[in-house]
Amino acid sequence: MRASLIAAPNTSLRLVDLSGFVGPDGADVNYEFSGFRLVGGSNQTGASALRVTGAGNFSGLILIENVDFDNNQSTSFSATAGAVQIDNLGGSNGRIVLRSSRFYNNRISDTDPAQGTAAALRVRAPSQGPVFLSNNTFANNSNTGSGDAAAGIYVSTDSIGQVFISNSLFFGHIQPDLRLASTSNVVRLNNNLYQSLTGTANGASAGNVVGANPLFVDLANGNLRLSSNSPALRVGLVSPAGGLAPFDLDGFARGPQVDIGAHDLSATFVFRNGFEL
Hints:
By secondary structure, the chain is mainly β. The chain is built from no helices and 29 strands. The protein has strands at about 1-5, 10-15, 15-20, 30-35, 35-40, 50-55, 60-65, 70, 75, 85, 95-100, 100-105, 105-110, 115-120, 120-125, 130-135, 135-140, 140-145, 150, 155, 160-165, 170, 180, 185-190, 195, 195-200, 210, 215-220, 225. The protein has a 7-stranded parallel β-sheet with strand order 1-4-7-11-16-21-24, with no helix packed on it. It has a 7-stranded parallel β-sheet with strand order 3-6-10-15-20-23-26, with no helix packed on it. The relative contact order is 0.12.
């Protein structure tokens, strides 16, 4: 069984809420969200753009691909993420894939200091099931909440699932890009570009670029495409954990060389004007 929300180009939404969503118990139910923008959500419990929580014995696939999460904010005491919360999913075979998506200028503040929070994405893997995050871009997100705070991704502690973060780009944050609060999760970081990390990736990790400026075209105005001399060019994994998205956020096919981040400008690609780089 498959449920899809695939939007027309430039479609904007405020909130997609899958809190407590239920499919046939234990069944292989797949959900797909692709091609839209979640912009301007505010002051929601949990997260203000997308919530995927409390699914019971979930054993299917949730695919979130080519989605723009921009300018969402949470100021609720009960909030855990400015943009996206993936949390409290049961089952042993459920999989979540979030890839080729952008998190820009999301904010969270005034939160409960007893819980970890993220301006962009808070994630807790399903029990024994994996979460795959690849080719995402996180930039200019802000977390002014108290307690364990991250600007990019916060990986929660109370699960025995696995989290794979690959080919993703983090820049323009004051708080840590990644806060890995887990002692029981297996967390792997491969071929990412980030500035700061709190915690330990306790799974096999390699190929990360730490501390480099990704050289966006225009960070201040939200153009997070890569410049032609970016250190994120052609250093991504061709086969990241969870699979490579076939298209980047602009709709261009990826490969055979892969860049880090949501936008791909590989040297073998043809530009819109028909000329090769």
